[in-house]
Amino acid sequence: MESRPPFYESNQKVMFHKIHNDHLFNQNIKEITKKMLKKYSPDLVDFVIKLLKKDPKQRLGYNGYKEIMDHPWFSNIGK
Q1: Which residues of the chain have pLDDT under 50?
Q2: What is the three-state SS of 21-33?
Q3: Pseudo-torsion of CA 36, 37, 38, 39, nearest 10°?
Q4: What is the pLDDT of residue 26?
């Protein structure tokens, strides 16, 4: 999809700090979603946004890999 992770920095300490302290990501999730929908399918955008949830309990896959595989983005795989 994209060439770099959302919080990329060549310095790992700086990158981890950005990941841990980035409040803008959750504040701007609607704006990020809108931009992604211009390039990617709604199912893919939903999949990515759910994987990027900061709270692991809200993240797609928290309840096991089947939760990920049951996501609509995977509906055509293996058919």
Answers
A1: none
A2: HCCHHHHCHHHHH
A3: 60
A4: 60
- Tokens linked to 19: 């990941």
pTM of model > 0.70: no
Quick one: pLDDT at residue 55?
83
Residue closest to 62 by CA, chosen among 73, 51, 72, 71? 51
Which residue is associated with the tokens 């293996």?
Answer: 78
Question: Which residue bears the tokens 């049951």?
Answer: 70
* Contact (Cβ atoms closer than 8 angstroms) between residue 22 and residue 8: no
Concatenate the DSSP letters of all residues of the chain into one string: --SS-TT--SSHHHHHHHHHH--HHHHTHHHHHHHHHTTS-HHHHHHHHHHT-SSTTTSTTTT-HHHHHTSGGGTTTT-
